[in-house]
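Project standup — Tuesday

K.O.: blocked on the structure for the chain from last sprint. Re-posting the sequence here as requested.
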Amino acid sequence: MRGVPVLAGVPGQDAATAFLARAAARPGHAYLFAGPEGSGKKLAGAAFAAALLCDRGGCGECRDCRLALEDRHPNLAVLEPEGRDIRVGEGSDDYGTARWLVARAHRTAPEPRRKVFRIEQADRLTEEAADVLLKVVEEPPPDTVFLLMSARPHELTETIRSRCQTVAFHPLAEAFVVETLTAEDVSEGRAMLASRLAGGNVGRARRIARDPEGLGFRDEALAALREVGGDARGALAAAQRLAEAAADYRKGMGRFLDQELEPLLDQDTGDVAEQFRALARRIGERHQRRERRAEREFLDWSLLALEAWYRDALLVATGGDPSWVINLDLDWSADGVSPARAAAAIEALEEARAALADETNLNAKLVVERAFLRIAS
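H.V.: unblocked you, prediction finished:
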């Protein structure tokens, strides 16, 4: 991107990055990044923050850019849901809440230059939290920029939306995702499969394509489906298997924390170096939030994989074009699932995924059991 090199790293969103490149020179006080998951909003938000915090307008090489791109800049704060919602909070010291963010907005920036606040999944602000945020967005402190991210912008209050400049992000085309992955030495077949399983989410497609265990959620889902059979016992066993796989996935996330902390360790003691302790604490808190969501995410990916499998079965059963299947690596020549059964299974899986998204529903395994019982019936 001419004049803003850091924005050149945001793929497939030329209109959005062109707008942000112009805005970086004279930014407004609030922006709403609106678009589906995996379209590049988060990457663009980090890049735009770097452009706003860099003395050279987003060179991509300086300390300010590096720290902003890693969400580590002292003048940058990121707010995201704790569990289901972004809460209003008890006060200014209630970390990760709307009142905590507003208090930081009114404080002097830790370093010279402006302050940037990024709010992930802004549509998850509770009504009270949205009211608190609205006040500071209406009357922002000087040199303060708010970036709101949402895949469901219509769920934000109209009063907040109307005070933000909207930056639209569009779903990434399959051809673009495949081209991106093949440029990273992924085979074209693997890239195509990953793109379709990820629904165009380039980050998830990359993980599926490059991680040796990237298809683990689908493998576990299909293995569980084979256990369902036609009775309740099989359905409950299948749900148990998938729940155990989700728990194992969560346990395995510890390696990601170790990888993030490794550069911060003192080589002599093996402990976090004193100058990095605050950063390590923030990384640990972010990792804990990821862990809390890990099992539901694995279950959601698994149910989505089953939905894709039944969608393919329905396509084949009704004489559709085989090139349109999502699971390109599976043999559909002798599947034998009836259209009615496939359609009923898709409906059950859709309802289960909606129930999982409602994090007030505490028993995720029960949600999966209900789905498999409906499939078995």
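K.O.: great, moving the ticket to review. The mean pLDDT is 89. The longest helix spans residues 277-317.
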